[in-house]
Amino acid sequence: DNCIAFGGDTFYAVDEDKTYYNLGGGWYAKDDVYPVQIDVTTKPTATQYAGATFSKTSMVVTATMSDDSTKAVTTDCDIPAPVLVEGDNRIVISYKEKGVLVKCVYTQTGTANDLNSISITTAPDVVTYAEGDYFNPAGVVVQATYKNGTTESIAWGDSRLTHNKTAALTSSDNSVTFSVKVGETTKTANQ
To answer: What are phi and psi of 75, to 5 degrees?
Structure first.
C-alpha cells in the first residue's frame, strides 16, 4: 500500500523507491520538510466582545513540521475575522506550505457587551409642569455606554428606554428616572 494517512483527511503517496512523496500539490523529496500540524500557541490578549470583529492581535500560530521542528507562521496563515456572537465562536485557521494544507479550529469566546451606564444627553422638550400634568418624555435622548467603551444614542420611542412617571404629577415630583434595558442589564439615570 503506497497511501499513508497524513494530517487527518489529507493523504500522500510514496513512489516505489520511497525517495519522493506526492502530497497533493506535487512530488517532493523524502527529506523535504512540510507542515503536519498548526496550533494557536499564544491567544489574542484583547477581550473579544460579541458584535465586534475577531481580532488576531498578539495571536501566535505555530506549525509543527515533518522533521518535528516548529516555527511561527501567523502572518502566513489564513485567519478569518468573523463578527463574534456571545459564547463560543469556532474559527478555522489554515496554513499552506509546499502544497500541504493544514488546519486547526480555534475557539474564541465572545464576551457579552453588557450595558455599563447611561446618561441623559438631551432633556425632554418640556421640563416645567403644573400639579396634575402628566410627564411627557418626548425629545429625551440618553447615551448608553457599553463595557467595550462603545456608545449609542437612544431616543424616546425606542422600546428599551422607559421612565418612572406614569401617574399625574404632584408637587413633590421634582425628578424623573429614565431606564434603559439591553439584554438582561438595566441602567438608570435621573433628571
So the answer is: -70, -20
Q: Do 90 and 54 form a contact (C-beta atoms < 8 A)?
A: no
Q: pLDDT tens digit string along 135-151?
A: 999 999 999 998 888 89
In which residue are the cell numbers 421640563 written?
127
What is the C-alpha to C-alpha distance for residues 101 and 47, in angstroms, rounded to an integer? 30
Strand partners, 188: 179
Give which of 83, 2, 74 is closest to 44, Cα–Cα: 74
- Alpha-helical (H) ranges within 20-140 are none
**Lowest model confidence (mean pLDDT) among 1-10, 22-31, 43-52:** 1-10
Please give the model's pTM, rounded to 2 decimal places. 0.61
Which residue, among 59, 48, 40, 114, has the nearest Cα to 82 in the 3D structure?
A: 48
Cα-Cα end-to-end distance for the chain: 80
Distances (CA, A) of 114 to 46, 86, 145, 173, 181: 16, 11, 9, 31, 10
* Residues 81/89, Cβ–Cβ less than 8 Å: no
Q: What confidence score (pLDDT) does residue 186 get?
A: 92
Q: How far is CA 55 from the centre of its chain?
A: 8
Res. 184 pLDDT band, cuts 50 70 90: confident
Q: What is the H or E stretch that residue 100 is in?
A: strand 100-110
Q: Which H or E run includes 186?
A: strand 185-190
